[in-house]
């Protein structure tokens, strides 16, 4: 049965976090969905890096003839930076915010409690979490005095949804849509419609640790690390086997470096703790590498040197 997309109604988007994911989300929103974006990060240094990446990608598109100079200027002009000192007050007018900070439940809970207090009552609060429970994040939007069972409590939490983009966001065609126990159908429909406007195909997952994507990807990456740890093959042979034997664009160790080993470990811990299933136990080597500060591409060293 054909389904009709509801209008997303996002006239202005907030993006929280100017790391590789947040920057990519800001770019596709400004370029494909053509919405003005307010980009917030508590670190001005991070914002600078994010905007430099946006400029580089837009220059590449102009160089390849996919955008004219004027179109690139328009896209860039749609991305505005919220000064760090404004805090979330600077996001007050947005119709949806997509949070893309690091994978830390407490951090996300604090952020969502503040967002729910600062944003318009009808604004959608989306998280780009890779594995953390959307239901827990939604519960955190209620202040101490609001009962989750009250009409007010249900209304506030119903605006929270998982909108999981993939890295690099401008290239990867998927968004995973995750409904918390509290999410309303209207929130889901609008979030889906926005992801489609960004040029993405949407799949839906229940709110289980890692959703569909990372519940399948992370054990695969972890198993590759365990193969390396046990000396079954070299890093190159493990990666080449998967690249040439299975046509994966990157081998699993290269992919782990690309995602970030700290992110991989955080997701694996969420999977392990959330399911108590030993198949998700992170490898000791991964834990050690993160302890050493070898986080993959972003730190210059992971399974490979960069
Ligand atoms: N940001 C934006 N664009 C990028 C990019 C980046 N960081 N890195 C590469 N690209 C673009 C290039 O500019 C190029 O675009 P063009 O075709 O328009 O010129 C295109 O991607 C191809 O790049 P290259 O030719 O330089 O290199 P490759 O052909 O090797 O492709 C890749 C690079 C797209 C990253 C490819 O290796 C790939 O698809 N790798 C797997 C990525 C993947 O699996 N991502 C999902 C990770 S899991 C995740 O994000 C979930 C989270 O919860 C953990």
TrEMBL record:
Residues annotated as transmembrane: none
Residues carrying the site annotation Important for catalytic activity: 164
GO biological process: fatty acid metabolic process
Entry binding sites for NAD(+): 17-22, 41, 103, 108, 130, 167, 298
Domain 3-hydroxyacyl-CoA dehydrogenase C-terminal: 210-306
Pathway listed: Lipid metabolism; fatty acid beta-oxidation
Domain 3-hydroxyacyl-CoA dehydrogenase NAD binding span(s) in chain numbering: 13-207
GO molecular function: NAD+ binding; oxidoreductase activity, acting on the CH-OH group of donors, NAD or NADP as acceptor
Pfam families noted in UniProt: 3HCDH, 3HCDH_N
Keyword line: NAD, Oxidoreductase
Domain of life: Eukaryota
Record's protein name: 3-hydroxybutyryl-CoA dehydrogenase
Species of provenance: Coprinopsis cinerea (strain Okayama-7 / 130 / ATCC MYA-4618 / FGSC 9003)
């Amino acid at each position: 049965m054909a389904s009709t997309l509801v209008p997303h109604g996002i006239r202005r988007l907030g993006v929280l976090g100017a790391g590789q994911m947040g920057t990519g989300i800001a770019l596709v929103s400004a370029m494909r969905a053509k919405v003005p974006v307010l980009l917030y990060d508590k670190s001005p240094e991070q914002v600078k890096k994010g905007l430099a990446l946006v400029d580089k990608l837009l220059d590449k598109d102009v160089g390849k003839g996919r955008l004219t100079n004027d179109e690139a200027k328009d896209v860039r002009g749609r991305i505005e930076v919220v000064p760090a000192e404004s805090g979330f007050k600077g996001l007050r007018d947005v119709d949806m915010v997509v949070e893309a900070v690091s994978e830390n439940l407490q951090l996300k809970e604090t952020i969502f409690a503040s967002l729910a207090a600062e944003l318009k009552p009808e604004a959608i609060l989306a998280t780009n979490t890779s594995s953390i429970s959307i239901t827990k994040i939604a519960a955190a939007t209620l202040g101490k005095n609001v009962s989750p069972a009250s009409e007010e409590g249900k209304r506030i939490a119903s605006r929270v949804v998982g909108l999981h983009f993939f890295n690099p966001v401008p290239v990867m065609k998927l968004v995973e849509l995750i409904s918390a126990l509290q999410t309303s159908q209207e929130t889901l429909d609008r979030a889906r419609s926005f992801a489609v406007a960004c040029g993405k195909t949407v799949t839906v997952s229940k709110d289980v640790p890692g959703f569909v994507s990372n519940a399948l990807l992370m054990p695969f990456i972890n198993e590759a690390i365990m193969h390396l740890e046990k000396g079954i093959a070299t890093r190159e042979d493990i990666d080449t086997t998967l690249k040439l034997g299975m046509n994966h664009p990157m081998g699993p160790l290269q992919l782990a470096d690309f995602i970030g080993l700290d992110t991989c470990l955080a997701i694996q811990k969420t999977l392990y703790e959330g399911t108590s299933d030993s198949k998700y136990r992170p490898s000791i080597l991964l834990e050690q590498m993160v302890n050493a500060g070898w986080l993959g591409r972003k730190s210059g060293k992971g399974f490979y040197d960069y």
